Amino acid sequence: MTALRRATPDDHDHVVALPDLGGATRRLLAKDLAGEVPRHAVVAVDDGEVVGFAMETRQPDEVHLLDIVVRPDHRRHGIGRRLVTALAALGAADGATAMTLEARVSNPGGPPMYRHLGFTDSGVRPGYYQDGEDAFVMWHHDLGVLARAADADDLSALGVASVVAPRPTGPVRVPDLDELETERDTTTGRVG
Ligand SMILES: CC(C)(COP(=O)(O)OP(=O)(O)OC[C@H]1O[C@@H](n2cnc3c(N)ncnc32)[C@H](O)[C@@H]1OP(=O)(O)O)[C@@H](O)C(=O)NCCC(=O)NCCS
C-alpha cells in the first residue's frame, strides 16, 4: 500500500532517481530538503520505496506547485492526485487560498490530471521554458475544495489535523513572470 509522508534529507537520492523529475529540482533538491527555504515536500512510499514526490513553494496567499512526479510503474493509481491534494491541505493549513502551476504544453499527464482535479487554464506563457516551449498556467481558485479531496490517512500521516481553509475573498492575483522563482531553470519538464 502506498503511503504519503513528509520528505526528509534522507530521501534525496531516492527522489533524484525518479524518472521525469525536473532538472532544476534534481539540482536544488538537497537545499530544498535541508529546509533552507520553507516549503512543503511530500514523498509517496510503497513497500519501502519512494515512488512519488511533490513539492511546493509559497507566495503570500497561494501554493505554487514546483514539481510532481510519480514513478512510471505506479502511475494512474491516484498517487498524483493524493500528492496534489496533500500539498493543498498543507498550504490551506498555512492560510493559502489558491494553487497555481506551470506545465509544458506537450506534457501528456500533468495538465489532464490538474483539470481532473478542478484546475482551470488561465493562459499560456509563450517560450516559458529555456528550450522555447510554452507553458500552460493553471489555477485552482478554491484551495479548500482541493484540500478537502485529500485522503484522511494522508492528512493524518502529514500531521494536518483538519482542513479549514479560508475562502478566497476576491479575484486571485496572477503573479508576473519576474515574481516567480528565478533560481530554477526551465530546461526540463518541471511544473513551475
Ligand atoms: C503527471 C503525473 C504526476 C500523474 O500522476 P498519476 O499518479 O499517474 O496521476 P493519477 O493516477 O492521480 O491521475 C488522476 C487523474 O488524472 C488524469 N490523468 C493522469 N495522468 C493522465 C494521462 N497520462 N493522460 C490523461 N489523463 C491523465 C486522469 O483523469 C486520472 O484519473 P484516472 O486514472 O481515473 O483516469 C505522472 O504522469 C508523472 O509523474 N508524469 C511525469 C512527470 C510530470 O509530467 N509531472 C507533471 C509536470 S506538469
Written overview of the protein:
The protein is α+β, with helices and mostly antiparallel strands. The chain has a single domain, classed as Gcn5-related N-acetyltransferase (GNAT) (Aminopeptidase). Helices cover 27% and strands 26% of the residues. It has 6 helices and 7 strands, in the order E-H-H-E-E-E-H-E-H-E-E-H-H. Strands 1-2-3-4-5-7-6 form a 7-stranded mixed beta sheet, with helices on both faces. The chain is globular and about 40 Å long. The protein binds coenzyme A.
Helix count equals 6
Within CATH, the superfamily carries the name Gcn5-related N-acetyltransferase (GNAT)
Broad structural category: alpha+beta
Give the C-level CATH assignment: Alpha Beta
Q: From the 3D structure, determine the CATH topology.
A: Aminopeptidase
The figure for the number of domains is 1
Give a nutshell description of this structure:
By secondary structure, the chain is α+β, with helices and mostly antiparallel strands. It has six helices and seven strands.
